[in-house]
Specification:
Blueprint: E1 2-5, E2 9-16, E3 22-30, E4 36-38, E5 52-57, E6 66-67, E7 73-76, E8 83-87, E9 93-99, E10 106-112, E11 116-123, E12 129-137, E13 143-148, E14 156-164, E15 170-176
Parallel strand pairs: 7-9
Antiparallel strand pairs: 1-4, 1-6, 2-3, 2-5, 8-15, 9-14, 10-13, 10-15, 11-12, 11-14
């Protein structure tokens, strides 16, 4: 998580693997007004070891930013039982449930106040993505939405991944039906 950047102009944030090769990067732009925040997803790190983060501001830029490392929230979903998520800046959530072939499932999202778009990805038991939907929150009491997924293709353990794009802390409630 990269939060509260007030470094003037372009700032690049790089993440390097233990062998020194680049894993990913982010570009922030700040001119004036509200500080800039962003999240870099580092899920499925390719190797064990020490990773390096490098922050490179524009020439001569001064200011500050906060870097944080978050692990996913995780747990299991039970049909009909709401789960409240309180996500820190840059944090995602991964929840699992067991389904049967041909079963129809819905995911209800309520009181979503995660800034910007939040994506909800469904993964099959073999780990491949099955489907996704998104919720966009801009202001007010929160967004409510229900999404019906295609019939589950096989029996087994499914994963729902909640991935906010705003890079800012917030909350939402999900319910499997």
């Amino acid at each position: 998580a990269i939060a509260g950047s007030t470094l003037a102009g372009q700032t690049y944030v790089y993440v390097y693997k233990p062998d020194g090769s680049q894993l990913t990067s982010a570009n922030l732009y700040y001119s004036s007004g509200a500080a800039v925040s962003k999240a870099l997803a580092l899920s499925n790190l390719p190797v064990s070891g020490t990773y390096t983060v490098r922050v490179t501001p524009s020439s001569g830029a001064t200011g500050s930013l906060t870097l944080g490392l978050q692990t996913d929230l995780s747990g299991s979903l039970t049909a009909g039982t709401p789960v409240s998520l309180s996500l820190a800046s840059g944090q995602n959530a991964t929840y699992t449930f067991t389904g049967t072939a041909g079963q129809k499932v819905q995911v209800g999202v309520s009181a979503d106040v995660l800034p910007g778009y939040t994506y909800f990805y469904m993964y099959k038991p073999d780990g491949t993505q099955m489907d996704y939907f998104s919720v966009n929150y801009s202001s007010g009491a929160g967004t409510n939405q229900t999404y019906t997924f295609s019939a589950l293709p096989v029996a087994g353990g499914y994963t729902l991944r909640v991935a906010p794009t705003g890079g800012i802390a917030g909350s939402t409630t999900i319910q499997l039906n």
